[in-house]
From TrEMBL:
Transmembrane segments: none annotated. Pfam families: Peripla_BP_4. One of its GO terms (molecular function) is carbohydrate binding. This is LacI family transcriptional regulator. It comes from Pseudomonas cavernae. It is found in: Cell envelope.
């Protein structure tokens, strides 16, 4: 197995394969991978990343190759993207490889039939996910607050661009938006469309929607690519992002961080690109005999999302442009910190 390799100081180096559901040229998923690699390097772990290029069938084939091959890793990280988790769990059942889920765990229906981690599939050892509902809520609440501080006019019209309908992240961010709108009846959701995370698709949709609803003053977009697509459509109509129309969105690309700095994006939420790196910390500790289940539970939902102001966006931009993020991940590990009762994962270390 790959895990026979030696790490720092001749100690066993835990080996990990990550099935990245995104595209190999997709800014969010490549930055996600970079943060994971920084953690692996800092912790002395072996990491291999396979991109599924947004193809769930390819992801399953990659899992099959990893789990049935001769050079099997100690751990396989996966995302329950488009609900492929159960099939990969079944493939891994007798492989000797331990599974860990990030970003999206099993849906409620899937869990009814398959159980939770360490139950029907004991080699599925846990999960770490963000609170996507909270992210959608934060974006909407802050967008409404900024608009009210700016004009105080009511009612206010809003357009929303969600992601791929079958992805849990899109569904939960939508829930957060709707929760915020329920608290603000003065804000009217004119239409929500599935931009499928794509800039071009959101651009084409926004061209139609901005003509249909010329009074729109707020745009909520579940990721930055869709925000930029809608922004292009607005600019072609003579509008100015951050002036006639305010944008709220989510992610950590250099482009969106710069847009927050210069005011074209009025509300920015980020943080979940760090999930894979924090998962590496958990697996590092588990491999050292320090079960993360005893420090906050085997299935974690950590508050990684936070609102970024222009100054924080500038600091994060500096970090994402550095090769290794300049973090010592060992300080977040229970190894060497025997009194640690829980993990403190957040975006804060990148904003100091």
């Amino acid at each position: 197995m790959i895990g026979c390799l030696l790490g720092v100081g001749g100690v066993h180096a835990a080996s990990v394969v990550f099935l990245n559901p995104g595209r190999s040229n997709e800014v969010f998923w490549t930055s996600y991978s970079r943060f994971m690699q920084a953690a692996a390097d800092s912790l002395g772990m072996e990491l291999r990343i396979l991109y599924a290029e947004r193809d769930p069938h390819l992801m399953v084939r990659q899992a099959h190759q990893v789990l049935r091959g001769e050079q099997r890793p100690d751990y396989l990280l996966l995302v329950n993207e488009e609900y492929v988790g159960p099939e990969i769990l079944r493939l891994a059942a007798h492989s000797g490889v331990k599974l860990f889920m990030v970003n999206s765990r099993l849906s409620a229906d899937q869990q009814k039939s398959l159980g939770a981690s360490r139950e029907k599939y004991p080699n599925w050892i846990g999960s770490l996910v963000p609170n996507d509902e909270e992210a959608g809520y934060l974006m909407a609440k802050e967008l409404i607050r900024v608009e009210q501080a700016r004009s105080g006019k009511t009612p206010v019209e809003l357009l929303a661009f969600s992601g791929v309908k079958s992805t849990p992240a899109a569904q939960r961010r939508e829930l957060g938006l709707r929760k915020a709108l329920a608290e603000h009846p003065e804000v009217r959701l004119r239409q929500m469309v599935q931009g499928e995370w794509k800039r071009q698709r959101a651009y084409e949709q926004a061209k139609v929607l901005l003509s249909r609803y010329p009074g729109v003053r707020l745009i909520w977009a579940a990721n930055d690519e869709m925000a930029f697509g809608a922004m292009q459509a607005l600019q072609e109509r003579g509008g100015r992002p951050g002036h006639e129309v305010l944008f709220a969105t989510l992610n950590n690309s250099p482009e969106v961080l710069q847009a927050r700095i210069d005011g074209r994006v009025s509300v920015l939420v980020s943080g979940h690109f760090t999930l894979g790196g924090w998962a590496m910390v958990l697996l590092h500790d588990y491999d050292a005999g320090l079960d993360f289940a005893l420090r906050g539970g085997k299935d974690r939902q950590d508050p990684l999302f936070m609102l970024l102001d222009p100054g924080q966006s500038k600091k994060l931009l500096q970090h994402v442009q550095q090769k290794g993020f300049n973090l010592d991940f060992r300080r977040f590990s229970a190894v060497g910190h025997p009194d640690m009762r829980d993990y403190q994962f957040s975006l804060r270390p990148l904003l100091d």
